[in-house]
Amino acid sequence: MSNFEIVIGLEVHTQLKTKSKIFCSCSTEFKSPPNTNICPVCCGYPGVLPVFNKKVLELAVRVSLALKCETNKSIYFERKNYFYPDLPKDYQISQYKMPLGERGILELPSGKKVNINRVHMEEDAGKLIHKEDCSLVDFNRTGTPLLEIVSEPDIRSPQEAYDYLTYLKLVIQYIGSSDCDMEKGSLRCDANISLRRHGDTKLGTRVELKNMNSFRGVRAALEFEAKRQAKAIESGEKIIQETRLWDVDNLKTVVMRTKEQAHDYRYFPEPDLLDFSVSNELIEGEKALVGELPIERKERFLKEYKINQKEVDIILASPWLANFFEEANKAYPKSQELSNWLLGPFLEQVNALEKGFDSVKISTQKFAQIVRYFSEKKLNNLAAKKVLSLSIATDQDIDGIIEGEGLTQVSGEDQLSLFIEEAIKDNPKPVKEYLEGKEQAIMFLVGQVMKKSRGNANPQVAKDMLKRRIEE
Ligand code: ADP
Ligand code: MG
Ligand code: ZN
């Protein structure tokens, strides 16, 4: 294996997040009963005319910009002709000679840069369901909008392919163009792989892998295929350009078709759709929506909030959490304290809520208020967690909760001093021991104060006050 360099290029299809299909008004709902979201247009009846869904263009342009592609303003579609039972029109409307975007780049968190060859819009085909004695076809998916994203052969290992897919998915989800849910088929990947001797500049013969249904599957298929090709080359065999399927049960790739059986799609411009140009307004609008990519946001978080990388990674793993954190910082710019509370008690309580983040009602201001009260020692740890638990799904008034729950007594030294006096008066022995230099004795007195305050005192404040009072 180490004699060879692995070369990988990925073709990713993502389903763009629209309510209706790309050329008709049928719903894109994924769970509907078979053949209920169909009409004469997506089923290719004679005489019908497709109408392009503008939302598809917006979401596609957004991805093209996020991948830093040169975005072509003049758009036209082409027909990709082939026969297959899941394709009622016998052609797929796609983009060919002039894709929406070209020559982009995706920089991975590792710093690796993967060049993007092209992104183009197209429609999806239907779905075949194979039974024992027949095959059924469901056309619900026919005409669902897809964006195909083709990378250059810049990826150098199966793990790097996995990292590319993971980050690409994060970016696309982040900008809201697709759910990228492999289980629902809203993200699919074909992987192309070849080997060459180290130092060679010419690419080896590639094999295309299909049928992987998870990122881990892509990685496993590539690992298998790299070994298979290495063995073949070492033993003098020639690699054949072919398409292979990942057989997940037997963990190997098997031939699907060779180059000779490759289709000639006879592309030609789609005559039923007019050419058009993308307006500058649309592009500028989408640019604004792309905003900051996850990797750029990470760099800014590290610089701006001065919390460590591990914390940043956890916060940024959820756009919801990241936005909440940023807003809370506006209300109370003590990032480290906010991060401690967010990643600790807050996440713990969120996990216990029925709908996770969707159940959270507390405003960032109120969350910041609790953290501030804790920092000011108005609330001790236990009390602050209690206040949080009562406000997290309700957004109740914080001072009201503190008042109502009788947590107020912890605030301020005035209320504590009463308990301090009592503890000192009732326990002369530990007081004497402390004065004689037994540092530990103070902890007994702290315990007494905690008891008297029914757990609401701040132990650190109580300890400081006790020491001061005894030493007086
Ligand atoms: P096709 O439609 O024939 O699959 P595409 O241009 O859509 O062709 O996709 C080709 C994919 O294969 C790209 O991702 C590209 O980076 C990759 N690729 C091309 N040549 C090689 C090679 N020799 N080794 C590995 N990957 C390759
Ligand atoms: Mg291909
Ligand atoms: Zn339709």
Write the layout of secondary structure elements.
Elements: E1 4-15, H1 54-66, E2 70-71, E3 74-75, E4 78-81, E5 91-94, E6 101-107, E7 113-123, E8 127-130, E9 135-138, E10 145-151, H2 158-175, E11 187-197, E12 207-210, H3 215-234, E13 242-247, E14 252-258, E15 268-269, E16 276-277, H4 280-290, H5 294-305, H6 309-316, H7 319-331, H8 335-352, H9 364-375, H10 381-391, H11 398-404, H12 413-426, H13 428-435, H14 441-452, H15 459-471
Parallel strand pairs: 12-13
Antiparallel strand pairs: 1-10, 1-11, 2-6, 3-16, 4-5, 4-15, 6-7, 7-10, 8-9, 11-12, 13-14
This protein binds adenosine-5'-diphosphate, magnesium ion and zinc ion (ZN).
Descriptors for this entry?
Arc Repressor Mutant, subunit A, 15 helices, binds zinc ion, nine-stranded mixed β-sheet, binds adenosine-5'-diphosphate, binds magnesium ion, 19% strand, three-stranded antiparallel β-sheet
